[in-house]
Amino acid sequence: MNFSSNDYLGLASSDELKDAYQTGISLFGVGSGASPLVTGYSAQHESLKSELTEWLGFEDALFFSSGFSANQAVLFSLMHKGDLLLQDRLNHASLMEAGSLCDADMRRFRHNDLKHLQSLIKSNVPVLAVTESVFSMDGDQSDVDEFLAVCGASGTMSMIDDAHGVGVIGKDGAGVSGISQYKPDILIVTFGKAFGLNGAAVLCSKDLANYLTQFARHYIYSTAFSAAHAYALSKALNMIKTQHWRRDKLNELASVYDESLGALSAHVTTATPIKPWILGETSKVQALCHRLKQKGIWTTAIRPPTVPDGSARLRITLSASHQRSDVLALASQLKRFTEES
Ligand SMILES: Cc1ncc(COP(=O)(O)O)c(C=O)c1O
């Protein structure tokens, strides 16, 4: 039983998606053979782009092989000397690393502290502010409306990484686009989590997409994902939009998890399938991980520096592919370990 993957909706192993991928491979082969600007971009990529932009309400989208490269491509292409980049201090490593390496000045605002963000914005330089919809290690959410209001009022360009939100939160799983009437200038969607596959998209205006097509080196000089992959992603998108039972099941499993474990101090309540189990000491988390493995439960210890010192944890994640009995089995082991330690 895997309790640490990001396959929130259980699509990665669904027969329906496997069949679609196999059909895609039979029709289009297994590789794209080139970067998108050479011959790697197919009619299947174009269909996927139309479906995605229509669903999430953006003019254009560019595809990347991973969320890591999409985030880096955007920051390296847009941020120049003299610009100001403001990031939530818990943003993903791909954003933080690109922020430190690019030519702009980077400042980090306190986690989800939009007053702090506001105080760092300057009016005399171009500013890009970046946050995530759902934070991957804590499973908490940002206040998207408020973030976009702060950016809008100050003329700050906004970017939201929706890696852990799309498919899971918002109306019909539309992530940020399903919870807010406002849109960021740039939305990052990754396909390695709720979509059950891999790859990513940058959604933005036509002008920005044109600019990135000219300057984003991760886009220009990297092999596109295959047409078969794009075909499977279209199927995944359709499943996300229409198979509401997957999100309903996630909610039911989350209730079982919270009811079973809510009274224990390591438990953290979240409104997402990410359930941190915070023990603090790395050695304790490793011992728990080992115990769970012996019981057939697969989790991974998350340690500093990925999370702050003294907050080593299991990053437990629920999936629509779990059964109620799986969650109860996990809960029973977590309770026993707590009683014994
Ligand atoms: C918030 C966030 N953004 C981006 C990424 C990178 O995405 P990918 O795994 O597609 O490279 C991750 C991966 O865990 C993530 O959590």
TrEMBL record:
This is 8-amino-7-oxononanoate synthase. Keywords: Pyridoxal phosphate, Transferase. It comes from Vibrio hangzhouensis. Residues 1-332 form the Aminotransferase class I/classII large domain. Its cofactor is pyridoxal 5'-phosphate. It holds the Pfam family Aminotran_1_2. The lineage of its organism: Bacteria, Pseudomonadati, Pseudomonadota, Gammaproteobacteria, Vibrionales. GO terms for biological process: biotin biosynthetic process. Signal peptide: none annotated. GO terms for molecular function: 8-amino-7-oxononanoate synthase activity; pyridoxal phosphate binding.
